[in-house]
Amino acid sequence: xxxxxxxxxxxxxxxxxxxxxxxxxxxxxxxxxxxxxxxxxxxxxxxxxxxxxxxxxxxxxxxxxxxxxxxxxxxxxxxxxxxxxxxxxxxxxxxxxxxxxxxxxxxxxxxxxxxxxxxxxxxxxxxxxxxxxxxxxxxxxxxxxxxxxxxxxxxxxxxxxxxxxxxxxxxxxxxxxxxxxxxxxxxxxxxxxxxxxxxxxxxxxxxxxxxxxxxxxxxxxxxxxxxxxxxxxxxxxxxxxxxxxxxxxxxxxxxxxxxxxxxxxxxxxxxxxxxxxxxxxxxxxxxxxxxxxxxxxxxxxxxxxxxxxxxxxxxxxxxxxxxxxxxxxxxxxxxxxxxxxxx
Length: 343
Hints:
The protein is an alpha/beta fold. The protein is 27% helix and 26% strand. Strands 3-4-5-2-6-1-7-8-9 form a nine-stranded mixed beta sheet.
């Protein structure tokens, strides 16, 4: 499958500059780029070899196209043209969003639409963070915190103009402490940020869910977007069943809805011993991906949830749903769960 990188970031964060630099790099020959409008990417300095419909072929071996009707149709069309030999074979796809875009609908298309998932896989969500203006943007524009929250990797831009503010690092630690970070000015940082290899990356620190455990801390103390978003990681006390996974998603999505920004987990299935990678975005839970084995040395079933305006104790209570017995009828609600401790 062709890896897809979703590049997001607020207005003026430097996405276009990053993208143009990347397309000039020899290692990123044979890259397909999807943008909303050709004018947004600024292709003036990149030689155009050929243009057809909404696809522009670049002399360097890359191709660029605009979203014609919908993202899934554009991706399906690119695959069709590649198979028919109408365009050069591409090794990866980079999708650049607008600065005001909510990443959730795009993620759900990449993770759940059959026209996409048959030929492509989401490799990483990469967000450009403007070292000069991100602090103000986080306070003024709620989209900025959302983009940072769902990112797998953060590229800090404009550090060559001003040093990285300590307050910005603190904000990033608050909103998304688990994302890998790169400074765009550092040699090799850009290509490393777009390299494959850590799709199943989860944080190293978790709360271990044991009988009687209840999360006590909360960051829901302020009105600003960053203080309302948090990332929590949990180690489950034992491998869940398929029924337990379905029950947990029913409870979590029903209780939190769009406030459950993104969740990822690596779980051992008690019924079969299989290792699976699971993902959900807001109200949509995508088909689990079966892995050939554990992706790292940590052989515990673990889950990471990124939420907005969710009390941590309430989130932890939903984990009781993983103990649901086979045959538990959906939909399950938080009020259906027992109040006693996790077993």
